Structure formats: C-alpha cells, structure tokens
Amino acid sequence: NGIRLSAVWLTHDPEYPENLPAAPLVRYGWTPRGELAAVYDRSNTQVRSFTYDDKYRGRMVAHRHTGRPEIRYRYDSDGRVTEQLNPAGLSYTYQYEKDRITITDSLDRREVLHTQGEAGLKRVVKKEHADGSVTQSQFDAVGRLRAQTDAAGRTTEYSPDVVTGLITRITTPDGRASAFYYNHHSQLTSATGPDGLELRREYDESGRLIQETAPDGDITRYRYDNPHSDLPCATDDATGSRKTMTWSRYGQLLSFTDCSGYQTRYDHDRFGQMTAVHREEGLSQYRAYDSRGQLIAVKDTQGHETRYEYNIAGDLTAVIAPDGSRNGTQYDAWGKAVRTTQGGLTRSMEYDAAGRVIRLTSENGSHTTFRYDVLDRLIQETGFDGRTQRYHHDLTGKLIRSEDEGLVTHWHYDEADRLTHRTVNGETAEQWQYDERGWLTDISHISEGHRVTVHYGYDEKGRLTGERQTVHHPQTEALLWQHETRHAYNAQGLANRCIPDSLPAVEWLTYGSGYLAGMKLGDTPLVEYTRDRLHRETLRRFGRYELTTAYTPAGQLQSQHLNSLLSDRDYTWNDNGELIRISSPRQTRSYSYSTTGRLTSVHTTAANLDIRIPYATDPAGNRLPDPELHPDSTLSMWPDNRIARDAHYLYRYDR
Description:
Pfam families: RHS_repeat. It comes from Escherichia coli. This is RHS repeat protein. By secondary structure, the protein is an all-beta fold. The model has no long low-confidence stretch (mean pLDDT 95). A hairpin with a 6-residue loop joins strand 7 (81-85) and strand 8 (92-97). It contains no helices and 56 strands. It has a 56-stranded antiparallel β-sheet, with no helix packed on it.
C-alpha cells in the first residue's frame, strides 16, 4: 500500500516527561520501489545500507555496515545465492545439486552439506569438512535432532520429548547420560549429570524461579515484591544471607544491598546506559556517552578521567589516560586491530583472508608467525626467538602431539575426551585417573625415577574432602612418603577447616556469603579481621600486633600502620593509578615510569642512603644493562627478545 516506517520517535517517557529527545531513535531510508535502503541511529549516523537488483524487486545484491567494506551477492536463475563477495576477507561460492550443497571459500577450502527432507523438514544429515573428515546427524520424523556422529565415528544421542521437543536425555559416546525434566510450562525442573548430581528448580504460579538447589545441595531462594515483575527483589543463599535489589520500571538495576546491609546504587540515562555507580565508603564512578551511545569518558570520585575515542565503524581507536597520555589502535577494514601504539612504541598484527593472526611484530621489530590447518586450528608457531612449535590434532580437534624443537609430546584421552596421560620423547610425563563419576582421583608424574602422586577424595556432593600426596620407590613401588590434608565444610556448605597430617586443624571464620573474619590453629586464635563497608580489610589483629589499613578516596591502598611504628607504610599514587611512593619511618622509595607505564627507576632515600636504581628497557620491555653499571653499553634492544645478561647473571639458551 506504499506505507513504510520512516522513523521511530520517543513521544512519552514517564521517567523524563519534560525532556524528550529532539531526534528520532531510529530512521529508515527506502528506495522508490519500497526496499529498505539505509538505517540511521539516534545520532543520525547511517549504520547500514542495502543495494538491490534492478530486475528483481527485493533481491538484495549488496549490504554494508558503516565503516566496513561492502559485501556483494550473486544469484542463479532460481534466486539462490551462488557467490558472496568480500573485498577484504573470505569470499564464498555455493553450488546446488539435489540434496547437496557445496561451499567453497576463497582459500579453496570446500565443505559439502548433504540434506534430507523437503521444505521445512529439510535437514543437514551429513557434512564433509575441508580436511576430508565427515560428521553426521540423524533427525526424527518431525525434524528434531536424535543423534550426532563426530569425525571419529563416535555418536552422541539425544532424546526429545514427543510433545514439546525439549531434550530429556543426552547420552555421550562413552555411555554416560544426562537427564532433564520439565514442568507443564516447559521450564527446567531437574537436571542430572553423568556424575549423578542433580540440579533442581522450583517456580511459582507465574512461572518465576523461586528456588534453585545446586548439585552440591546449596539452596538459593528468590523473592518478588511485584506480581507483574520477573525480576527478584531479594535472594537468600545457602548461608542464609540475603541480598536485595531494586529495579526501574524498565528493568534496570537501581540498587543492590548485600548481606551486611551495604548498598551499591546505579544511575542510568533514558537509553538504559549506566551513567554512575555509587558504592559505600564514598566511592563513585561516572560514565559519559556520545550521541551514538558509545562510552567516551569514565571519571572517579577524585575527578580523574579516562577518555575514549572511536572511528566511524565504532572501533575503539584511542584511550586517553588522566595525565593526557594516549594509547592508540588502528584497525583493518574488518575491525581487527592491526597496530597499537603506546608511548611512541608500536606493536602490529597481520591477518590472512580468514581473519586469523599470521604475524605479530613486537616493538623491537621481532616477529612471531602463526600457521593454521584448513579447520582454522593452530599448527605452527615460530616465536620472537626463532623457536618453532608445531601442533597436531585428531579428527575431533583435540591436541594429540606437540613438537617444541627436540621435545615431542603426545597427549592421550579416554572415551569421554578426558586427558589420561602425557608422554615426552616417549617417556611418561604425567598421568590422570578418574572414578566412575568422572571426577579426577589421581594425578601423577615421575621425579628422579620416583612416582609422585596426588590423590583426591570427594563427598557425595562432589566437594573435595582430601588430598593425599605419595612418593613410591622406582623399582619396588614401595610407599616411601605420604602426607594427607583433609577439608571440611560448615552446615551452610562453606569450606571452613583444613586438617593437615600431624598438625592441628586450621579453621577459619566467615560472615555473610564467605568474607573471612578470622582464623585459628587448633584452639589458638591466629588472626582476626575487621572490614569496612566494602568488605576491605581495615584492621588485622595477630598476637600482640595490630595492622591498620586505610584507603584513598579512589579506593587505592593509602597506608598500613602497625603498632610497631618502624613498620608503618604510606602509599602515594599518581593520576594514572601508578604507585609513585612508599614511605616508612626508616626510608622512602619513589618510583618513576615511562610514557608506556614501564618502571624506569627506583629512588631510595634514608638517613645515610640516597640511591637511584635505573631500569632501562628495550622497546619490547626487555630489561637492558644498567646504564650506570655499564656506561659503555651501546645495546638498545635484545635480538630475538632473548636477554643475554643483566646486572648479576649471564643467560644461555638451548634450542
């Protein structure tokens, strides 16, 4: 009828009734034939454009995201896409035959999809991958997945409910099964994993989650104060601690109150973006956005501001620190970072047509290169130092062999794809063992001919209850040494005790949802903690000592004072959040940094001491010889990123 949606305006907002936006939230442009040609966001920036076939109305032949290359399409006489042309990435061709579609990309990688069924019941039942491997899928009469066979010939079975189609059982190739149960609203009420542990959920009459029991038995309850809202006003966890939340009419979190009654508040703008976070102890953070909704500034309570810049495509191009220093990033046509610059130093990345990193160049000009197989798996990496590592995978993608110059490592797995052992140059390195529930029970390795093993024990809830370390004789397998540590939990399910062999138990006291309040060894108190409204440590009592800790308005460590004055420390920070001074009664240490944020010197002063230690680094951050100890050194960088010497040592490398 010629009517098209051209714009969406906000005409009524109960939260901001007197301050409505002067521009539409979104605007659409159309061709004379009624085809969507362009989309503009609320800043009136065009974000999408579309081109159509002159002959066939509505057939899109090209589209583009703002700041990105145009993707073009070609069709056959039946209106099917035969080519997808990407000027800066992978292009594809599509060949159609009866029950068969062949897809070939511009790297000449080919995939073949075999289909069965007609119209809405057509399904891909077999897929030939670019490496020649094959995966298969089976479906029931109404098109629901029943089984999948991977490239190694292993089958995973799925059992959908006859009426709802929801999955009720998954059986993996090793025969282990997971079961799922639902209520009459198709909501999950129970899930049992292969280890036999069960997750349970309960709902109210409105279908809202009111209780969840975790596999370890911990119960979380959800409460609602609005019969029309799906958002909880409170949660009670397994410890009995309650957290409360308030929400705006639009579902935005306005406040969160923790189990101690301490509150965090959130402010939002009319577009739903968070503009401020107000925490206890006077800590606040403020955020600003541009007309496109992109974050452009973050400011803390002290007024320190970090700013952000973007290109037309929305890629982050610069971060400006509070001191004005600038970190920049450049991108290729597809939005992948190709160059990052900080303090005048540049790191660059190169990609292939598939978007894979193939070359990384450090600030020193050294290169790391990467190679991939036809399934995009990393198969070779040659590092800055020239060392080459190679990787081999099985048909399902698991790493089975790695080569690191003269070291050849093989990785072995069981039917459940769990790692069972690893060999290095033919010798067993580590072994892993599991029980019938799939839990790790033993991990062992050989050290100087002796087998060293750690054994793990669990309770029926799957919680760790013990660790036993053993060492066996290399020839007789006689037990030479062992040590066991046991773990215990309180009634709320929190770990609260560790019992080492032949030692008193170490027990810790917590409050709320697990904040540490104190520890004791046997019946002897070791340490007690006092915390502020952000649960940060402010006072530590141990023996006859007390350590008082204070924080800056920005939340950084400000001081630590012990009731032994000689151990007091005060901390000073710059606007960028870098530590620049530690002061104590005996001495003061000052720290200097480069524009890249690297430590350049430490200046220590005391009654009879005034010394400055410089830290010189090459562009990649490798430490250079001390310029004061080696004034004649002309070294400006370490070739291949390998340090040959420093102030105290010489270094030699193997292959």
